[in-house]
Structure formats: structure tokens, C-alpha cells
Amino acid sequence: MQTSAIHPPLPRTLRADAATAVGALGTILGVWAHPDDEAYLSAGLMRLALENGQRVVCVTATKGELGTSDPFTWPPDQLAPARSMELAASFAAIADGLDNRIEHHWLDHRDGRCADIRPEVGAAQIADLLDRVQPDTVVTFDSGGLTGHTDHQAVAEWTTLATQQRPEIMQLDAVVSQSYVDHFDGHLDLDPFFYDGYPRPVDDATLHLELVLDDELWHVKDQALRAQATQTDVVVELLGADLWKDFNLVEAFVRHRN
């Protein structure tokens, strides 16, 4: 894996344009599988929404108790509460200095077992939250789970089933764009971060929303990710500061089409 700095830098989204685009999303409900999914894929979006005074709600299906390569140091009964505390710290970092906060709900499923849940059961849980939160926009994974993780794919299926019954809600799916993949060509092998056959980049022309974070937003996202140290310390060490930043600087979404 190469870890050299990348040039030229990714062109940043103008802050005013980013804030306007996020403001158009109204109340946002993010639906994710594990703690840290929300930060990797939408920390910048959530920060901008909070700055705009929008309501931001996040749902996490599991506590991520299997999310370690060192189960002897982090057995599931210890990793789950650790990741719960990390998630709270990450949310605090995203909302730092603001009056409003991210609302959060757990679904309490087992890590790695979401695909075992009948889709209609998971969808019913999401539908209940849609009724309670009344979001204008739901943000989740694309149908492939972005990385190919089966938990991601299951959560995406539940969410899509639930939003199909609420056509007034816009569903945005987190994706990897072709320009993002091209940016790393020759600088970073993306394979270790995705399952076989992933990522599946989408044409940039299909993007509904793309945020390339400015320095201030990147600082917030960096702090939110580093707060989840059981997951991110090893990635930061592997990539180094420059590639760590470029790897996480873009948040891209397509509008879900049934």
C-alpha cells in the first residue's frame, strides 16, 4: 500500500454552497449498522445541518461488538460498551460549540447478524422511527452496503422498505464516486477497506449531493472519527495524516431510486 501525499488536492465545496445544499434536506435521519459508520460517511453533513439549526437524528443497528482484529484485548462484552462511549464522544465532537445536538437511537441487534433478521422486522423498526421523527431526508448505505458488509446491506434493505411506504421522504444513499476512486489511483490501494468486488463507484453525474469538506469541517470530522479510537487508530497509523485526510474528505450521496 502506497502512502504518499496526493496532488493535486481535492477541490473543496464552498462552505456557503454546502450549507445551502444540506439545508434543503430538512430534518435528517441517518440509519447505520455500526458505531463509526455515521462519522465516516456523514460527519460533515451532520455538522452543517446542526449549524443550520436542522434536527439531526441517528440510528445505529448494532453496538459493533465484533469490530476488532484483537478479540483477546477487546472481547465483545467489553468492546460494545467501549464503542457506545466512543460514539457519544464522537457526537459531542460533531456538535462542539453548538446549542443543538444529535439525537440517537439503538436498534440493539447483534453485530454481524443483521442479515439474519427478517427484512420486514428490521423495516418495521425503521418505520416506527420514521413515524416518531418525521424526517424529510433519510441517509443510509446504498444497496451494496457501500463496502459490501452484510450488516450494511441489511440495514439498507430495511431502510428502503420503510421509506417506500413514505414517498414524501427523500432517501439518500452513501456512495463512492468514480472521481474519488480515480483520485487515489497509484497512491492508495482501496482494497483493504472494502470487501471483494467493492467499492462500486458511481458516475459523478448521478450524485445528488457531494461534500468535499473545507478545513474547518475536516477538523470536526477528524475529531469525530478519532473519538472512535478502537476503530480508527489503526487506520490513521496505516495511512498517515495526508492520506487519512483525503480518504475521509468526501461525502457523496445519490438519491435512491426504487
Main features:
258 residues; alpha/beta; 43% helix; 16% strand; globular
Q: How widely separated are the two ends?
A: 37 Å
In total, the number of domains comes to 1
Strand ordering within the main sheet: 3-2-1-4-5-7-6
% residues in beta strands? 15-25%
In the CATH hierarchy, what is the class?
Alpha Beta
CATH superfamily: LmbE-like
Discrete helix count: 8
Q: What is the H-and-E element order?
A: HEHEHEHEHEHEHHE
Give the proportion of residues in helices. 40-55%
Structural class designation:
alpha/beta
Characterize the structure shown.
It is a single chain. A seven-stranded mixed β-sheet has the order 3-2-1-4-5-7-6, sandwiched between helices. With 258 residues, the chain is α/β, with parallel strands linked by helices. The protein contains eight helices and seven strands; from the N terminus they run αβαβαβαβαβαβααβ. It has helices spanning 15-23, 37-52, 76-94, 119-133, 150-164, 178-183, 215-226, 229-248; strands spanning 28-32, 56-62, 103-109, 137-141, 170-175, 209-212, 250-255. The chain is 43% helix and 16% strand. It has a single domain (15-255), classed as 3-Layer(aba) Sandwich (Rossmann fold). Helix 4 packs across helix 5. The protein is globular, with a radius of gyration of 17 Å.
Topology, element by element:
Layout: H1 15-23, E1 28-32, H2 37-52, E2 56-62, H3 76-94, E3 103-109, H4 119-133, E4 137-141, H5 150-164, E5 170-175, H6 178-183, E6 209-212, H7 215-226, H8 229-248, E7 250-255
Parallel strand pairs: 1-2, 1-4, 2-3, 4-5
Antiparallel strand pairs: 5-7, 6-7
